[in-house]
């Protein structure tokens, strides 16, 4: 069994918004981004102009939010979809992409640890970018039979996911290697060469290989995670979204 991991002090504005320690089995130090579709409020099919980052104060640091920059574009809010929870749907269009509203200094350094709950539609033979920066991305391959995560080079680990189901996957990106796990099954580390991080961060992409599928939750840390932490967060997300290993 994994050891106990303290969640730390939950910011007061998050507690006031109804977020409790039972919903957050993770620590807040080095937590840079937390997007949770289950917390979004709206009507079925609403176009999402903004996806608030839960770890920033609602009165400051708005550059940490994800924004739809294309005129009239943006993904859609889909209600009560996975385990009775809302998700955000991207339709494979470049206009659906979201990106941060300003420069993010933390994106310029590594390591990153990324947890994503997502799915892709089947039958679309293209890469599907879920989380993207110029230094690394997490997404689905075009061959309809693999998960992939890579960090700025052609060599990256892969995990089979030849379906349109939701999956929980974890990727750690360091200065010269990338590691991937899907639904608690790990592939190991792959050397990906020299990385050149910058300050841009996208959901889907604005010009190439946009996502045709859903994002339910995204958590990004700027540190490496212990095996216990990875296990706890992964299994929390599996339970929350009604998935199995």
Please explain how this structure is put together.
The structure is a single chain. The chain is mostly beta strands and 245 residues long. The strands form 2 sheets. Strands 1, 4, 5, 7, 12, 13, 14 and 16 form an 8-stranded antiparallel β-sheet that branches. It is built from 2 helices and 16 strands. Strand 8 (128-133) and strand 9 form a beta hairpin. The two termini are 16 Å apart.
Task: Please provide a brief summary of the model.
The chain is mainly beta and 245 residues long. Helix content is 8%, strand content 35%.
Class inferred from helices and paired strands: mainly beta
* Integer-rounded radius of gyration: 17 Å
The mean pLDDT is: 77
The sequence of SSEs as H and E is: HEEEEEEEEEEEEEEEEH
Uncertain regions spanning at least 5 consecutive residues: 151-155
Distance between the termini: 16 Å
Number of strands: 16
Query: How many helices in DSSP terms?
Result: 2
> What overall form do the CA principal axes indicate?
globular
β content, as a range? 25-35%
Q: Could you estimate the helical fraction of the residues in percent?
A: under 10%
The largest sheet is: 8 strands, antiparallel
């Amino acid at each position: 069994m994994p050891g106990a991991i303290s969640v730390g002090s939950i910011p007061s504005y998050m507690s006031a918004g109804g977020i409790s320690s039972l919903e957050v089995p993770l620590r807040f130090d080095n937590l840079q981004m937390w997007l949770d579709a289950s917390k979004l409020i709206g009507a079925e099919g609403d176009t999402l102009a903004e996806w608030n980052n839960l770890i920033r104060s609602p009165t400051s640091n708005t550059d940490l939010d994800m924004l739809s920059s294309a005129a009239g574009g943006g993904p859609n809010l889909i209600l009560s979809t996975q385990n009775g929870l809302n998700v955000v749907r991207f339709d494979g269009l470049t206009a659906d992409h979201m990106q941060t509203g300003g420069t993010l200094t933390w994106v310029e350094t590594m390591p990153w640890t990324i947890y994503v709950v997502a799915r892709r539609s089947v039958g679309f033979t293209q890469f599907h970018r879920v989380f993207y920066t110029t230094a690394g991305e997490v997404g689905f391959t075009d061959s309809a039979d693999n998960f992939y995560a890579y960090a700025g080079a052609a060599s990256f680990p892969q995990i089979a996911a030849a379906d349109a189901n939701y999956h929980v996957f974890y990727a750690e990106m360091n200065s010269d290697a990338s590691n991937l796990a899907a639904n608690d099954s790990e592939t190991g580390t792959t050397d990906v060469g020299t990385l050149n991080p910058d300050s841009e961060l996208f959901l889907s992409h604005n010009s190439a290989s946009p996502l045709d599928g859903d994002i339910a939750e995204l958590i990004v840390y700027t540190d490496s995670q212990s095996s216990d932490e990875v296990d706890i967060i992964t299994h929390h997300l599996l339970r929350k979204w009604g998935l199995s290993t």
